[in-house]
Amino acid sequence: MSLAPPAPSVPTPAGWLKTVARPWRRLTLLTGGLIIADTAPAAGFALGVAMTVARIEQGVAAIAPWLALAAASLLARGLIGQGATSLGARLARAVKADRRRRLLMDLFHGGGRSPAHLTAVVEGVDALDGYFARFLPLRIGAAVSPLLIIALAAVASPVSAGILLFTLLPFILGMALAGTAAAGESRRQFQALERLSGLFVDRVRALPAILAFDAASKTTTEVATASAELGRRTARVMRIAFLSSGVLEFFSALSVALIAVYCGFNLLKLLPFPAPEQLDLPRAFFVLALAPEVYQPLRRLAAAYHDRQAAEAAVPALITPEPVARDRPPGEPNPSTVTA
């Protein structure tokens, strides 16, 4: 008596995306490294502005080098940002081309010709674009850049660095809650898109029969209902995205305001508690200029978080079924079993 082979385990969406990204790990790390490298010109700009404000009364000759540093830092940030965007787009193109090639191989070798399979080739693969072009590199940068900036702020003001580190906790918690709320809605949105695409393909195939039986009005109603459902799902996703963005912006503004209050009261020596440090104008302005940069990588990651949800929602449609062995010529490999 032979035992049936165990059913293959279905990977989780996050695990599948991680597997797909593995061949392009070097390009991913390079893109994330450019985002982290943006920390250096950000600190240079903050230093240049702080020293310019502190020495503005000494004349143009005293502030000219610091103005040049600020201008050079802005230029460097632009070049680094452009480079990271270009590399992210290149990464997304490579992954999408590979996934679409594999899906088409499976489609033409008997893996399935259903409307859902055709939807995966087009909409499913396109849903991966934002994840690899933006979210994945930004996640690397968001894990390192804030800590680097806080370390730089600690050189000028350890107390301010402590405030920045403490305020990261509610910011990260807010991102996690927003991501959890958006996950289900993004999944239902893609399912609605999949249903609409499948319905449209089926009705186009059956167009002669629809016209012969005078069912055009019924078909139009079905397509309109599916389109309206997709619109409702998309509006819910956008509503959650805007709400979470507003919450994160509030925490970011509140954190910067705390730094501004502390630095201002420290300079005026009006703190209601004894401070372990006494700031001067350059140090206070340097910390104040760095404070928004702590949250900038996290804000960018939060803005791209829906890209992750869209990609994970499309993963079930992109995991192709195992083609039947008799449908393939002898000796021909199964495209769906090729590892990423």
Can you offer a commentary on this structure?
By secondary structure, the chain is an all-alpha fold. It is built from eleven helices and no strands. The protein has helices spanning 13-21, 25-37, 39-54, 60-108, 115-126, 129-156, 158-205, 207-212, 216-268, 281-303, 305-318. The two termini are 36 Å apart.
Strand content: under 5%
Number of strands: 0
Radius of gyration: 27 Å
Structural class: mainly alpha
Q: Biggest sheet, in brief? A: none
- What value does the average pLDDT take? 80
The run of helices and strands is HHHHHHHHHHH
Please count the helical segments: 11
Principal-axes geometry comes out as elongated
Provide the low-confidence segments as ranges.
1-7, 321-340
Distance between the termini: 36 Å
Helix content: over 70%
Tell me briefly what this model is.
It is built from eleven helices and no strands. The protein is mainly alpha-helical. The radius of gyration is 27 Å and the shape is elongated.
